[in-house]
Amino acid sequence: xxxxxxxxxxxxxxxxxxxxxxxxxxxxxxxxxxxxxxxxxxxxxxxxxxxxxxxxxxxxxxxxxxxxxxxxxxxxxxxxxxxxxxxxxxxxxxxxxxxxxxxxxxxxxxxxxxxxxxxxxxxxxxxxxxxxxxxxxxxxxxxxxxxxxxxxxxxxxxxxxxxxxxxxxxxxxxxxxxxxxxxxxxxxxxxxxxxxxxxxxxxxxxxxxxxxxxxxxxxxxxxxxxxxxxxxxxxxxxxxxxxxxxxxxxxxxxxxxxxxxxxxxxxxxxxxxxxxxxxxxxxxxxxxxxxxxxxxxxxxxxxxxxxxxxxxxxxxxxxxxxxxxxxxxxxxxxxxxxxxxxxxxxxxxxxxxxxxxxxxxxxxxxxxxxxxxxxxxxxxxxxxxxxxxxxxxxxxxxxxxxxxxxxxxxxxxxxxxxxxxxxxxxxxxxxxxxxxxxxxxxxxxxxxxxxxxxxxxxxxxxxxxxxxxxxxxxxx
Length: 476
Ligand code: SAH
Ligand code: SF4
Known about the structure:
By secondary structure, this protein is of the alpha/beta class. It folds into 3 domains: 6-167, Rossmann fold (3-Layer(aba) Sandwich); 188-413, Alpha-Beta Horseshoe (pyruvate-formate lyase- activating enzyme); 420-475, CATH 2.40.50.140. It contains 15 helices and 19 strands. The strands form 5 sheets. It has a 6-stranded parallel β-sheet, sandwiched between helices. Helix 6 (126-135) links the parallel strand 4 (115-120) and strand 5. The protein is globular, with a radius of gyration of 23 Å. It starts with 5 loop residues before the first helix and ends with a strand. The model has no long low-confidence stretch (mean pLDDT 95). The structure holds S-adenosyl-L-homocysteine and iron/sulfur cluster. Iron/sulfur cluster (SF4) binds at residues 197, 199-201, 204, 206-207, 241-242, 278. This is tRNA-2-methylthio-N(6)-dimethylallyladenosine synthase.
């Protein structure tokens, strides 16, 4: 094995994808098998930091690793390969990664064969890659969002050469289909419908680290969903940074409502969710499709970001306070049982008390079921990074007021479903109260007593006690 040279293996590799990666997965598998003969345990851990896109990337990495003969582990001590999918949307996500890899130093000292790899959004930032190269010599593999599918090829090279492998791409037009992926839950899956983003909201790093918007072929998406359903999946989440612009970058492609309809028609698929629709191009047709199909969940995540027309303009969001509210009224009229969630940023540069009051106004009227609230985080390279920041104290004080207002305003919806019997997709056993936990189609959590066999099933549950953001109930 000592004489193994990566270039020799590479010589015979097909040039085309996915054939090339399938070849490298096999090559990695043979290599791992050989190493197992020398006592290598071939255990791998994938650690996800960030959003659902990052989690989906994690599933792809895990799929490739398992196909190549690695066994998954949750323990860093046991792992021979540890991979991180990273997030850089706010500064605290970056700090989280540095904390994690800092802790791995002592493990690496004990196991010099260990490969620590980092991929994802943060690795699309040159400064971060440089920092890691300088300060963390024991990180042996660095790759980005555009070449994540190349894991087997990159890992094999790192393993054979025993040298650090760094490969990141600025952008790509390539979408590689049909590589393995390993779901976290057997009954639930997420499916990418597009990658990247063209919107360039002025606070947001995503377009810089994920590249321009690229939609997948709708036939591939439907095929993947059909295969998932055959494999026992009951709920599918369609993922894109702005699902409403799905297909616009491809000729003769379906629109998002058309794609949603095609997915909803798949026999046996019980629940469909999607994320994220941008309010700026939310169509009537989309509402009609949601209304039309039972299996499209009554839940919309509609990011507000700010309620001030002035700030929205400076954020480059292309909607106003009034247009957001009138869209909401229309949605609620058509879908009265809808679950509504949102994202809100406080302390965007230049945000005045008056602007902030506009955000509170919208929150009061919208009565979101829940809101993901963030303090503005400066991302270098984005336009807003050059603008004057709001005083930190003011930001944290507004943040608290926002939380209070969200809680107050959602109170009116609390207990709305009390006494009703509703379907719950059972997700897991809650470690705190030892009850089963699942979600209603409107995304509200329900806890109830039940046996293991209910995991992954959709069961009718009577909602008996409202706890604000969640319910206690019992199986009917
Ligand atoms: N494509 C999605 C958002 C993806 S980022 C959309 O347009 O809604 C997820 C959320 O992170 C955003 O909705 C926003 O609320 C928040 N976010 C993005 N950049 C941020 C920043 N610089 N500071 C604070 N929050 C940010
Ligand atoms: Fe970021 Fe805006 Fe694109 Fe969402 S739509 S990913 S917030 S640039």
